Amino acid sequence: MTIKKIFHLSFFIFYLSFISYAQQPSQITRQEYIQKFKDIAILEMITYKIPASIIMAQALFESDNGNSPLAVNANNHFGIKCHKEWTGKTYLYDDDLKNECFRKYDDPLDSYRDHSEFLISRDRYDSLFFLDMTDYKGWAYGLKRAGYATSPTYAQQLIKIIEDNRLYELDNYFDKEYEEEITVLEKKKIDVGREIILPDNFEAVARGPNGRMIYTNNGVKFTFARGTDTFFKIANDFTIPVSRLFKMNELTPDDKLHEGEPVYLQKKKKHAKKGFHTVAAGETLHAIAQEYAVRIKSLYKINGMEKGQEPTTGQKIIIDQ
Questions:
Q1: Fewer CB within 10 Å, N or C, the chain?
Q2: Which of 45, 315, 259 is CA-nearest to residue 167?
């Protein structure tokens, strides 16, 4: 081969390499990513009460600043896998295992919204939504404890990203109209037009949105239904999906909401410290479950009752196990 031919071949190979390199998408820097998506994170914070600092830190970490194969090829910025309920597009990617199924989105904004709904729809993240909006450390450690990621240093990595990039400043944009004004109150019983029998550990602990009081019963947060309330209104006030509110209270859309009844904002417990409850005339197992913040399923099991079976007047229902 002549030198001239070698030169032309070398130039051709260099040209192809240059074209191939030029076609590769340029890497996004961390600061470019923050500038591009911070407003979306703030919007999600206002809508779902997830700190924008946490949203941004997770997105930066999970998507490698928007440069990961999942982010580039599937618009998946939070590493959310398919799970059994996912019916959308999918993308196979090697993660903990080979060819794992991840959610694929048409737009990165869809990924941000799905991330918010993913957190708010799962019981294991419930406690995080009662943290102060500026408590990014509590959120970081809470996400790790709840199993969002397998890395043992996941919380510390999120906190470092937040502090290195001053992402905590984004949390200051939280709209005060939606923020819960936390005020410790003296334990009391509220007048709702009828007598409410509650266990001794019923306690008023905070003031929530729209002047709503938040109480605890058996360690579970709840509010009382007002005269003009609907399930949708309560769900909207606390930014909780109404389907989740029904689930936490073991109700359906066909059930009626009555003034003064407790509406739980967290999943009820499997048992309470009370030994037993004596059933009054006409009292249902659901009413007993609501009174003690205990799941109906647990009461069936503890008392050896069949699903759908109602107790009889004078029957002693075991509450503790």
A1: N
A2: 45
Cα–Cα distance for residue pair 27/18, rounded to 1 Å: 17
Contacts 24+ apart (CB under 8 A), 210-215: 210/237, 212/237, 212/238, 213/185, 214/180, 214/265, 215/262
Mean of all residue pLDDT scores within the chain: 80
Among candidate residues 147, 67, 78, 148, the one with its CA nearest the CA of residue 111: 78
Is this model's pTM higher than 0.70 or not? no
| Exposed/middle/buried for residue 131 (C-beta within 10 Å: 0-12, 13-18, 19+) | middle
**Chain segment 118-176, per-residue pLDDT in tens:** 998 888 888 888 888 899 999 999 999 999 998 999 999 999 999 999 999 999 887 54
Query: How do residues 70-81 score in pLDDT, each as one tens digit?
Result: 999 999 999 999
CA angle 114, 43, 80 (to 5 degrees): 20
Residue 204 pairs in a beta bridge with: 215
Q: For the range 197-204, what are the long-range contacts, defined as Cβ-Cβ under 8 Å and sequence gap of 24 or more?
A: 197/291, 198/262, 198/291, 199/272, 199/274, 199/291, 199/292, 201/273
Look at residue 175 in the predicted model and tell me its pLDDT. Answer: 55
**Geometric angle at alpha carbon 13, from 9 and 15, rounded to 5°:** 115
Whose tokens are 């007002």? That residue is 226
* CA–CA gap between residue 48 and residue 156 (Å, rounded): 23
Q: Rounded CA gap, 221 and 201, in Å?
A: 12
CA-angle at 246, arms to 258 and 277, nearest 5°? 65
Decide if pLDDT at 189 tops 50: no
Q: How far is it, in rounded angstroms, from Cα 272 to Cα 205?
A: 19
First-to-last alpha carbon distance for the chain, in angstroms, is 89
Q: Decide if pLDDT at 11 tops 60.
A: no
